[in-house]
């Protein structure tokens, strides 16, 4: 029997003056909006992953402040029919200005700031239903201590040596 494994993703929730930093990325279904987000890489913890993904997708350094939530969602990819379950760790924090000369990683086309109302008005442009839920929870004041997340040293040793 094949073991079921969700895809683990990390997402940054970044708010400034009532607007949220989003990425617009090219997908098989056209341009879609998302938090700066992506898959957790082997050998990294959640906080390392969200800092890396935010830098790659926004050209900005992300400073984590709190956990907004852990979200489980499922989607069937429209083009391939693949049934995927995502486990998303959403972390809020702050960013500075874009780093000069740093490009966004593909498939990000641009970044933009949107209010929750603007985001609610365009659900067809969301890459994931978890996008709006993370922002709604953040706007409602949901915050958990970063200490909620713990990465055992064995994760960081993944590429250096096999665990014994």
TrEMBL record:
Keywords: Hydrolase. This is NUDIX hydrolase. Residues 3-136 form the Nudix hydrolase domain. InterPro entries: NUDIX_hydrolase-like_dom_sf, NUDIX_hydrolase_dom. It comes from the Bacteria. One of its GO terms (molecular function) is hydrolase activity. It comes from Pseudaquabacterium rugosum.
């Amino acid at each position: 029997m094949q073991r079921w494994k969700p895809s683990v993703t990390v997402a940054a929730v970044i708010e400034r003056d009532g607007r949220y930093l989003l990425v617009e990325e090219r997908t098989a279904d056209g341009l879609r909006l998302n938090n700066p987000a992506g898959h957790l890489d082997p050998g990294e913890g959640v906080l390392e992953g969200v800092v890396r993904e935010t830098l790659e997708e926004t050209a900005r350094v992300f400073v984590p402040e709190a956990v907004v939530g852990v979200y489980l969602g499922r989607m069937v990819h429209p083009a391939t029919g693949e049934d995927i379950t995502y486990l998303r760790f959403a972390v809020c924090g702050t960013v500075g200005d874009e780093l000069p000369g740093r490009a966004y990683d593909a498939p990000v086309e641009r970044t933009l700031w949107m209010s929750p109302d603007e985001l609610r008005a365009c659900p067809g442009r969301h890459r994931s239903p978890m996008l709006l839920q993370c922002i709604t929870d953040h706007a409602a004041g949901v915050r958990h201590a970063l200490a909620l997340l713990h990465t055992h040293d064995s994760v960081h040793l993944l590429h250096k040596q096999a665990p014994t």
